[in-house]
């Protein structure tokens, strides 16, 4: 099973990658920029595997670039809460 199949696993995966990035000294801005790039890639190339991903994909598709950056930032904040 892929981490994309289950939203909780996806959040756990992102939280682990976030922790690694912070340990390597990446700034919050760089992390958010990378999250935006990942979100953009997923929206363009990966079919949502669960309802949560479908909502995120739908929101991404109607957002302008500034809103997409905000959405990426919110995902970073969401996984930081764990």
UniProtKB/TrEMBL annotation:
Q: State one Pfam family annotation.
A: DUF3243
> InterPro entries given for it?
DUF3243, Uncharacterised_YmfJ, YmfJ/YflH_sf
Domain of life, per the record? Bacteria
Q: What is this protein called?
A: DUF3243 domain-containing protein
Task: Show the taxonomic lineage.
Answer: Bacteria, Bacillati, Bacillota, Bacilli, Bacillales
């Amino acid at each position: 099973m892929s981490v994309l199949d289950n939203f909780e696993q996806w959040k756990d995966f992102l939280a682990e990658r976030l922790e690694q990035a912070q340990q390597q000294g990446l700034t919050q801005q760089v992390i958010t920029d990378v999250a935006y790039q990942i979100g953009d890639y997923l929206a363009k190339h990966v079919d949502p595997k669960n309802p949560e991903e479908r909502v995120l994909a739908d929101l991404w598709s109607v957002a302008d670039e500034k809103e997409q950056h905000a959405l990426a930032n919110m995902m970073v904040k969401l996984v930081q809460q764990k």
